[in-house]
């Protein structure tokens, strides 16, 4: 059995300054839910100890900035099916966001640690996707040799192996609550205007007929 001496996942040069997104007017809020299945051992084809991982996070960030192991602009609503031995955070650069434990860096998973990394392509924030291992800059591509395996996975403390997942996994996004409230308020206002207009038209017709 071969062992891994370096990180299984290398992100696209994430590093540099830790940014606080709240100070910028161009921040966006992304609600991401993911279901990870179909794991593939990228080292020895061993069966994965965990077969399904689910999670839900909300991230607020400025797409023009770089984030490195940010734990303040993220809310982790849920994470099941995996053990992580460090605080959870995210790193972001130029449309690519990695979520995971910050012990090894949010963009990496290391052998013999309980860790996870989930890589999102947010170049189109309204249509988030996973990042395939074949993407330049992601070292998991050298392990898998397959573009069908995505650059997200996990490691466990008692094993040198790493598990990444394939096409069975899904990622979804939902509008933030404030957006839903604004949308609902707008619909309500339009409905109110329509009712008032209909009332005025009916009132006018009544008086024209009398």
Summed up:
Helices cover 18% and strands 30% of the residues. The protein has 210 residues and is an alpha+beta fold.
Shape: globular
Unreliable stretches: 1-25, 177-210
Number of strands: 12
Distance between the termini: 95 Å
Mean pLDDT: 75
* β-strand amount: 25-35%
Helix proportion range? 10-25%
Give the H and E element order: EEEEEEEEEHEEEH
Quaternary organisation: single chain
Which structural class should the secondary elements be placed in?
Answer: alpha+beta
Largest sheet: 8 strands, antiparallel
Radius of gyration: 23 Å
Helix count from the secondary structure assignment: 2
Give short descriptive properties of this protein.
2 helices; alpha+beta; disordered C terminus; single chain; 210 residues; four-stranded antiparallel beta sheet
């Amino acid at each position: 059995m071969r062992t891994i001496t370096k990180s299984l996942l290398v992100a696209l040069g994430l590093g540099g300054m830790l940014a606080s997104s709240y100070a910028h007017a161009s921040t966006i809020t992304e609600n991401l839910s993911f279901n990870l299945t179909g794991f593939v051992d990228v080292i020895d084809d061993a069966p994965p100890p965990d077969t399904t991982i689910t999670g839900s996070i909300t991230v607020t960030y400025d797409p023009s900035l770089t984030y490195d192991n940010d734990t303040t602009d993220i809310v982790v609503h849920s994470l099941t099916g995996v053990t992580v031995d460090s605080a959870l955070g995210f790193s972001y650069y130029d449309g690519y966001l990695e979520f995971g434990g910050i012990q090894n860096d949010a963009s990496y998973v290391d052998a013999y640690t309980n860790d996870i990394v989930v890589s999102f392509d947010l170049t189109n924030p309204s249509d988030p996707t996973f990042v395939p291992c074949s993407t330049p800059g992601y070292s998991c591509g050298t392990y898998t040799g397959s573009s069908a395996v995505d650059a997200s996975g996990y490691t466990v403390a008692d094993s040198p192996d790493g598990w990444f997942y394939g096409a069975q996994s899904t990622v979804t996004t939902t509008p933030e609550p404030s957006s839903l409230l604004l949308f609902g308020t707008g619909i309500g206002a339009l409905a109110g205007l329509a009712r008032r207009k209909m009332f005025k038209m009916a009132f006018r017709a009544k008086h024209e007929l009398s």
